[in-house]
Amino acid sequence: xxxxxxxxxxxxxxxxxxxxxxxxxxxxxxxxxxxxxxxxxxxxxxxxxxxxxxxxxxxxxxxxxxxxxxxxxxxxxxxxxxxxxxxxxxxxxxxxxxxxxxxxxxxxxxxxxxxxxxxxxxxxxx
Length: 126
Description:
Blueprint lengths: L1 H27 L2 H20 L11 H25 L4 H8 L2 H11 L7 H7 L1
Helix pairs in contact: 1-4, 2-3
């Protein structure tokens, strides 16, 4: 259980530091360069890390690989727009907007009716 808590703590520290580091990086180089460098470092790291993690999820069909590729491209676009936004916003404002992700997720899930609303879900987001 300690291992899981440490992983979650590390994830939150990285996520929190990401806003500050991105702000400083986009002050020096173009946001697209920041994202390209991020991917160049992240992809090999995640590839190596994948050998040490549970591999119960396997992509079987070409359709699944295509969906993963599309989601990866969309996520890269999200990172790009966030980096561009950080050129125009303060770190504090960027962090506040990034922290609203659970709220947007709940709203979208309710709109497309992928999950029924519950009091616990709404309280968890608030």
